[in-house]
Design goal:
Elements lengths: L14 E4 L5 H5 L4 H10 L1 E5 L5 E6 L6 H15 L4 H4 L7 E7 L1 H4 L3 H12 L4 H10 L2 E5 L2 E7 H15 L4 H24 L4
Antiparallel strand pairs: 1-3, 2-3, 4-6, 5-6
Helix pairs in contact: 7-9, 8-9
Length: 199
């Protein structure tokens, strides 16, 4: 990413992302609505190649911040990993991050192993995924061989830890207890920060 004296150069500074072809329509949206909204809200320009799935993200003006450029890329990535645009737009909030888990790193690439692990993470009638989302206040997408999480830094990492426990074969009840305990401690920590008066 090139930068000259603190100013981005439209047409020179570029980020690249690759989308699965079946997610391009979601990124563009009906009549280009989603793509336009990403560009408007981040001050960027997106060029989508619908034959290869390549997305070029660049600043729309020299005033586009590095943070906004990264946010636009994160939104594109979130949509690539199966999130709806509405959920992906949560990444515009300053404290929100995207974490991606590649299941193949944990269980190899045998389809039956991957299917079994995805089943554990989703749970019966979606209970496991829903519980992790509700307790941590995160969004979770299970797409192809990836699990993606959107949330604030602490909560998203707690959700990631819970998912890793399920991948390792821990019982759902154990994972739920872990979640409750971690989030309780996290909320307590946040309350303390809130009450700590600056000197």
């Amino acid at each position: 990413m090139e930068k000259t004296s603190g100013v981005f150069i439209p047409g020179v500074t570029r980020l690249y992302e690759k989308l699965p072809l079946d997610r391009i329509g979601v990124l563009i949206g009906e009549g280009g609505r989603v793509k336009e909204e990403i560009m408007r809200r981040t001050g960027t320009r997106l060029v989508v190649d619908s034959t290869t799935g390549t997305v070029v993200i660049e600043p729309a003006s020299p005033h586009t911040s590095a943070l906004n450029l990264m946010k636009a890329r994160d939104i594109v990535r979130a949509i690539a990993y199966g999130f709806s645009p509405e959920r992906a737009f949560r990444l515009l909030d300053e404290d929100q991050i995207l974490i991606v888990i590649d299941l193949k790193h944990y269980v190899g690439d045998k389809p039956n192993h991957l299917q079994r692990i995805k089943g554990r993470i989703i749970g019966e009638e979606g209970k496991a995924r829903r519980t992790i989302e509700e307790v941590t206040g995160t969004y979770i997408s299970i797409y192809r061989d990836y699990i993606a999480i959107i949330g604030d830094y602490e909560s998203a990492n707690i959700a990631k830890e819970a998912i890793e426990m399920l991948i390792q074969g821990r019982q759902h009840s154990t994972v739920y207890r872990f979640l409750e305990r971690k989030m309780f401690l996290e909320k307590r920590r946040r309350m303390r920060e809130l009450w700590r008066k600056p000197y």
